[in-house]
Design a protein that fits this description.
The protein is 24% helix and 31% strand. The chain is built from 6 helices and 11 strands. It is flat and about 75 Å long.
Length: 188
Amino acid sequence: MRFKEGDKAEFVYGGKLTKGVVTEIKASPFGISYLMTFDENNKTIWVAEDLLLSPAQVLKVPQFVADWYEQHRHKLEYSIWGYIYDWDDQDCESDFYDFMKNDNLKPVETLIKMKDGYEVEKEPLYYVKFVDANNGNKCYLNVRSDGCKYLNNSVQNDIFKTQFTEAEIKAMDERYWQFAVPVKEVEA
């Protein structure tokens, strides 16, 4: 058995590649069949194992690439051409500019592939960790919804935001970045 209940798989239905979820499995002397549930109406169909494909990996891109793509997707090819044509006039300090000039990332190919679907990569989150000069205890930057900043010895709670992206930290104060600690390290 290649698939188990709950797995996503693709198969041809009505002449089109269709995505579905395995909801039941039957073995017979002729092979293994999977009951596939698909579309918004929860249609089902039995499909032989040899007719199922593992779904293609979803393209993951940074948020700034997704933002540019969404702004230009209606005239994508023209917008890519225009960006490259006006290369000397682009903001050379932007993340998107760095993405476009890095040929190892295959930026044009990536933008074109985004037409078939994509996901935005989750940015890593950080705590801003300080040491209390009075007692040597660690404390974290806490920002209330009204923007007030506090130092507290607890992490993420309902009142304060304590997990930040790199951009959020640098926007508050560039100097905070040197005290950034990945959330994974603190919670491990």
